Amino acid sequence: MNINITYVTPSNTDKTTRIEFTVSFQGTNDNVSGTINVTNDDLTKAYQGATAADPYAGHKVLVANKLVAELNQSKVEETK
Fold first, then answer.
1. What is the pTM of this model?
2. Virtual CA dihedral for 38, 39, 43, 44, nearest 10 degrees?
């Protein structure tokens, strides 16, 4: 799985930031694009995960964690 960060757009009205991303799945060559809104605290942690080779490394981890959390939540709702 490869995550590309397309845009990072801060919002001054609700103190969140929108992250636009595309996830590419190597096994199937499928792509999924989307957006997530994150808090300023989440964004600060994401910037701390940056590396010299990949300034968006922390953002990619944040997107992956949000996707996993949503998938897990949907599994819980399916079992109800």
1. 0.84
2. -170
φ, ψ of residue 79 in degrees (nearest 5)? -85, -5
Residue 59 tokens read as 């953002």
DSSP the chain: -EEEEEEEEEETTTTEEEEEEEEEETTTTEEEEEEEEEEHHHHHHHHHT--SS-TTHHHHHHHHHHHHHHHHHHHHHHT-
Sheet containing strand 2-11, edge to edge, reads 2-11, 16-25, 30-39
pLDDT in tens, 22-48: 999 999 999 999 999 999 899 999 999
